[in-house]
Amino acid sequence: MEKITLPKISSIQGTVKLPGSKSISNRSLLLAALGEGQITLENVLSSNDVDRMFEALQTLNIPCSRNVEERTVELQGCAGPLPNGDFNLYLENAGTAVRSMSAAICASKGNYVIDGNARMRERPIKDLVDALQKLNIDISYEFNTDCPPLNIKANGIKGGVTSVNGSVSSQYITALLLASPLAEDTVTINIDGELTSKPYVDMTIGLMKKFGVDVTNDNYQTFTVPAPQKYINPCNFIVEGDAGSASYFLGAAAINGHVKVYGCGKDSIQGESGFAGVMGQMGAEVTYGDNFIEVKSNGTLNGIDIDMNTMTDTGMTLAVVAMFAKGTTTIRNIANWQVKETERITAVATELKRAGASVEEGPDYLVINPPEKILNCEIETYDDHRMAMAFAILSLGTEITILDPLCCKKTFPDYFTVREGLVK
Ligand SMILES: O=C(O)C1=C[C@@H](OP(=O)(O)O)[C@@H](O)[C@H](O)C1
Ligand SMILES: C=C(OP(=O)(O)O)C(=O)O
Prior knowledge:
Layout: E1 3-6, E2 12-17, H1 22-34, E3 38-42, H2 48-59, E4 64-67, E5 72-76, E6 85-90, H3 95-104, E7 109-115, H4 126-133, E8 138-141, E9 150-155, E10 160-165, H5 171-179, E11 187-192, H6 198-210, E12 216-218, E13 222-225, E14 236-238, H7 243-256, E15 257-262, H8 275-282, E16 285-288, E17 292-296, E18 305-307, H9 315-321, E19 329-332, H10 344-354, E20 358-361, E21 365-369, E22 378-379, H11 385-391, E23 400-403, H12 415-420
Parallel strand pairs: 2-15, 3-14, 6-7, 10-11, 18-19, 22-23
Antiparallel strand pairs: 1-23, 3-5, 4-5, 7-9, 8-9, 11-13, 12-13, 15-17, 16-17, 19-21, 20-21
This protein binds shikimate-3-phosphate and phosphoenolpyruvate.
Shikimate-3-phosphate (S3P) binds next to helix 3 and helix 5.
Pathway: Metabolic intermediate biosynthesis; chorismate biosynthesis; chorismate from D-erythrose 4-phosphate and phosphoenolpyruvate: step 6/7
Protein name: 3-phosphoshikimate 1-carboxyvinyltransferase
GO cellular component, one term: cytoplasm
């Protein structure tokens, strides 16, 4: 579909059963593959990012089967490193899959190529490669670009001390952590600079614990993973609903409506679940339950000045909600938005301006002043699922056209259908 024109709507109302979290689906698939025993994963997301991870496990000949309708995956783990051999893995633009697989495969023995689509070939991975090279792993770039494709001549991980820049992506630290129990000896990871997106590292450590492995976190500056340790698969594991996907409905409800999302609640392991709290700070009525989050509009939203480093994905939803708030919204500490699906600071600023806002764009911040009236226009999405999903919220103010809306298939293929069921 080339574009979708969304008519102006007055409110958004209803309940949503959330699709599984992309981050938890991809972590649990890899953990299950490394773990000992048979496991059933439930509520696994079906979307490009997770499909590529599942296919990679199939390519590696890991015994696994999937029922997409029932959202389940059955898998027999390797009880240690992934299979040895020579394999090429294509992971499209799935950062979670490319980064974690690049480190995990180093524990095996063989020649592996890890590649992605054109945008993935522009997304930096040097910090992770440097950190792996410091552990004496033979990993290099196919084209000398500091980006995938990567060539890995894997011969196990000995262990030892490494360091990694923490300011570009937490996924590098997640990748090192997930692979470290497979080493022959303890791995110590020192973080250079301030670690970005910390809740994603907490998620990694929490899930490693669920699969039987301990990590010591010394104030996000040093992580120590005693090795070797074996991952043990629990019999079954339920993937939480995706808090990032929830934000498009909860953000719209904060403007005008009432939405309850199921599958993710007050004890969520996803930092992005804090997004509803941000809506609360702006003036919406918010309830966190055991397995739901509910947002009701309270009439007026006020602009906010906020550090969104811990909610890097839902910060984009906030930028669009800001178009409906009274006063200025400033979103800070978001430098790494530029190395994601697109250069997100620039993309968000450009499209908000197209819809009439006055926006100041900095290297790590956005200042958004909403227009008196949101303009009916065509929104470019830059092959970024979150651009398509977040900018659909503008339909609460005007008819809006979203170009290439199906780029949402990266994490939420049904987004526009589910949204349609809620519009009033
Ligand atoms: O570890 C993860 O699952 C993720 C970490 C975040 O990336 P950064 O650490 O690069 O901010 C986030 O943007 C991404 O969607 C998922
Ligand atoms: C940054 C994102 O994805 P990735 O896992 O590819 O980094 C995202 O989903 O917003």
